[in-house]
Amino acid sequence: THEKLCRSIARGSESVVVSVGYRLAPEHKYPAAYEDCLNATIHFMKNIEDYGVDPARIIVCGDSAGGNLAAAVSQTLAGRSDLPKLRAQILIYPGLQALDFNLPSYQQNQRVPLLFRERAAFYVLQYLNGDASNLEEVLEGSHISIDIKLNY
């Protein structure tokens, strides 16, 4: 779905773009997609000379669920001394917060196409465990304790 965009970014920035075709939910639950992205990134970084890429110029990027994955990969690799350091991460409308679907941004955009509030919660549940039977509880916020809400 992103091939044209990746090619455009590669041409426009004179960069090598590696796009990871990760496994998707609900058939493949968490952490399958994360592991695919992490493993592909590590493989790329360990074999960087094969791609003619400057190890000081590696950036991870993703949009939507891919933005979540890019952030998670960046955090995981931050402490690795055996790999080049990431120069940056680019997160385009990333799905980073799935704890509380009653925050102002979810309320303000709950009926804005393409990703309605209810649909966002549904996809998060599909990604985590493939079961959206407690969707109403998640939308109400009753799936987590008040202590956790106050902390985050």
Automatic annotation (TrEMBL):
<dbReference type="Pfam" id="PF07859">
    <property type="entry name" value="Abhydrolase_3"/>
</dbReference>
<feature type="domain" description="Alpha/beta hydrolase fold-3">
    <location>
        <begin position="1"/>
        <end position="132"/>
    </location>
</feature>
<protein>
    <submittedName>
        <fullName>ADCL4 protein</fullName>
    </submittedName>
</protein>
<dbReference type="InterPro" id="IPR013094">
    <property type="entry name" value="AB_hydrolase_3"/>
</dbReference>
<keyword id="KW-0378">Hydrolase</keyword>
<dbReference type="GO" id="GO:0016787">
    <property type="term" value="F:hydrolase activity"/>
</dbReference>
<dbReference type="InterPro" id="IPR029058">
    <property type="entry name" value="AB_hydrolase_fold"/>
</dbReference>
<dbReference type="InterPro" id="IPR050300">
    <property type="entry name" value="GDXG_lipolytic_enzyme"/>
</dbReference>
